[in-house]
Amino acid sequence: MDMLSGSLWDKILMFSIPLALTGVLQQLFNAADVVVLGQFVGKNAIAAVGNNISLIGILVNLFIGLSLGANVVIAQAIGARREHDAKVAVHTSIMFATLIGSAIMLGAEFAADPILDLMNVPQEVRSMAEIYLRVYLIGLPFMSLYNFASAVLRSKGDTKTPLLALAAASVLNILLNLAFTLWFNMGVLGVAAATVLANALAAGILLIALNRSTSFIHLRVKSLQVNGAALAQIVRIGLPAAIQGMVFSLANLIIQAAINSLGADAMAASAAAFTIEINVYCFLGAFGQAATTFVGQNYGAGKLDRCRRVTWVSIKLNAVVTAALTVLVLAFGRELLALFQSDPKVIELGLTRLWYIVGPEIICIFMDGLSGALRGYGISTPPAVLTLLGVCGVRITWVYTLFEAHPTYDVLMATYPASWLLTAILMGFAYKYYVKRVR
């Protein structure tokens, strides 16, 4: 994809839609484990997997955030036509992905027991939760490689190959889930093993794609190494995003605890509504990532005016797509929620959540679009700090002040639009300040 010349709107759409569908497919990938266990094993098995979701989310956000640094560094090198720098960054990224994924796997395996103790996992599901976690952790190097390889491909505009790789992995995951559960009676062990093998397939497909590439991102096994200068750039941009995502997960754990305090109906309603709203965010977030990659290439090429055009075109396109999805979700919210739960009270609470979250979610287009653009320039720490203060700070404060004083579902849900609005305003000031100083 030529990001440096010609029209922008069609290229940003071609980049963003496969990326958004990859996110949607990732949600289905994760849901497959729960569905199979719920249908064929039992509620304790679901609880065992559910107890690991928060920890897994933190690890996934770490890999996604760090890989964003690789995306920006390689995109800037491609835009500047620095072929050697791009190749060094590609090989450093893949080597680093292997090392960091393996290191975290080993560390987490040693810490599995203390982690489960800290999470207060109920004794009746403890053994299954530990089995699932320990087997799942074996797949962390593959998960790391998939995210970094995806970032490398995105840097030159390819979002279709990661989508196809994940589609193949999803099919394998479902087939192995059923085979290991129904034929071999392996329970949570089989479901975790299926996920590991599926992640290995997805990572393998992308590594083959990089090896067969004829562009700057061609991967040679013999050239794999960690270049100190390239790694420093990747970590400088990626680490703030990774920390942001991990703290984000921790803040949402506090909100989940508050939801749990409101009873089973609130928990069920939030779980169902979240499954719907996260798919809307997959599209919204994809345009933010498009801004990062397009700005990265054009900044590398010295086309600052085009960088600014990229930012606003991606925000405008994001607004149109997000508005359309919002209307659809709110118009058919009751029917969508009924797919998960038939209890009228749960559906009403789910609708409340959709109105509080999907309704004003369009605010996030400025938050994600402007922060994505800043990262494309290589400015990663300020948007991460502002997001932590504006989103995480507001939500944590809200739970321990307003919600404690008025512990109702509506008061709790209102923290989402409030945190987005403050962060979007702060991000607007930050964007104006830093872009003026970009050279």
Domain unit count = 2
What's the assembly state of these chains?
single chain
Query: What's the alpha carbon Rg, rounded to whole Å?
Result: 21 Å
Structural category: mainly alpha
- How many strands, what sense, and barrel or not for the largest sheet? none
What helical percentage do the residues reach?
over 70%
Low-confidence stretches: none
The end-to-end span amounts to 25 Å
Average predicted confidence as pLDDT = 88
Count of individual helical segments? 17
SSE string: HHHHHHHHHHHHHHHHH
Shape: globular
Describe the structure.
- It is globular and about 55 Å long.
- The longest helix is centred in the first third of the chain and has 37 residues.
- The relative contact order is 0.12.
- Helix 1 runs antiparallel to helix 2, helix 2 packs parallel to helix 6 and helix 6 packs parallel to helix 8.
- The chain has 439 residues and is mostly helical.
- The chain folds into 2 domains: 219 residues, no CATH class; 177 residues, no CATH class.
Overview features:
single chain; 439 residues; mainly alpha; 2 domains; globular
What is the element layout, followed by pairings?
Blueprint lengths: L8 H32 L2 H37 L3 H28 L1 H7 L4 H16 L1 H15 L5 H24 L3 H26 L15 H33 L3 H37 L3 H28 L1 H6 L5 H14 L6 H13 L4 H25 L3 H5 L1 H21 L4
Helix pairs in contact: 1-2, 1-7, 1-8, 1-10, 2-3, 2-5, 2-6, 2-9, 2-10, 3-5, 3-6, 5-8, 6-8, 7-8, 9-15, 10-11, 10-13, 10-14, 11-14, 14-17, 15-17
